[in-house]
Write a structure and sequence with these properties.
single chain; alpha/beta; twelve-stranded mixed beta sheet; three-stranded antiparallel beta sheet; 8 helices; flat
Amino acid sequence: MESNSTNEPKIIKTDLEAKDGQNKCPKCGATDISLNAKKGLLRCNFCRHEFKPEKVEGLEEDITKLEGEIMGSGTQDIQENSKNIMTLKCSSCGAEVVIDTTEATQARCHWCRNTLSINQQIPNGAIPDVVLPFNITKEDAKKQIEEFVGRRKFFAHPKFREEFTTENIMGVYLPYMVVDINSHAYYRGQGEHEVRRYTSGSENNKRTYYDADLYDIEREFDLTIGGLTVESSSDKLNKKASDKTNNVINAIMPFDIESNVKWNANYLKGYTSERRDTNIDELRPLVDRQSKDISRFAANESLKNYDRGVRWDKEELTVKGKQWKSAYLPVWLYSYQQIKDNQSVLHYVAVNGRTKKTMGSVPIYFPKLLGISAIVELLGFILMLLASDFKYRKLFLILGFVYFFTIYFRYRNSNARHKHEVETKRSIFNLRKTDNLIKHQKGLSNSTMSGANNKRVRG
């Protein structure tokens, strides 16, 4: 991915006027403040006054105006020698309160019981630019998880069924990097449009053939990508880990990023958090790949006539401007540790704390699944013998295997993922199209264009 800017990134200070210490209720001055998830408002637990969150200032909201690279101050590189232990002086009684920022951003004064908060960004990844508050309650999340698991209990491991309970689910703010991109895309290649389909040959040896028109194609447009979101925890980025089912965390995206607010430690009261441990340079290749995927699928909106596919021979995405911000995003999380072959496997069921989108992995009882798959395979064999006149009767022999893998993927969801290429917000401007007919092709044996790559996903 190319950029037309060689300037140093512009750093936007997103914690301006933030002060460590007491966050006070604007009405009564109390420091016992928490999130009312149903309304998305901060609420004083003393006088019950609710107040609107602040929005981050300084970051560019109009993506079409982005030039060069802009970074929220919360995205700057993590310093390994940064100070994690912070000592705050209580402004009410003068006592000194110690906060380990690797585990929490708030603590109560042990003398006057006032709450003290860390609001200024520190170079250890614990304080993001923005936070997206929970608006799904614990009770709603429990229902989502119970329904998800309930639909998968038949083949679930007996020990899991016995031990399953949603009482231990946790609300956690996970770290993400959110990227806005202003870009220009150019594509050149060829596409095919089917004009006729027909069969030829004898009764027992029929084949389908296709006639198709071949076109030279060019597409050029300006493209904005809003809120491209990637995990910024190295643990969650490893979606192929054999001891965890991390891909389910990725699969509950997207979030309504546009609703994010300025960081305030009170949003974390009653929830846990995981700090960021990756830097922009480590995430840049992933963001570049996903940006190209989004651009390629955006171009597909102007290719609907090419029903046999398009083969791009040249693809260019030139970035005019890019903006990074670090974010805490809300997830309700159920986890279950399964001991399998003397190894521990951690299964997750996750609920998006904004949309209720749910995905998870449930431990399978393989003796039961293998037994029923064998019965299905036997039935398939019997059907094959009975259907002697059916041309494709041998397909019945794979019914057991199809059943096994269908159930496996339904329970494990190892193929689940966030479809960033179509679920990320994008807009096309100044579209230029060129379509030139090259030739009419007859008698093609393949049902789709050879080498078609317009629906390829690399991210």
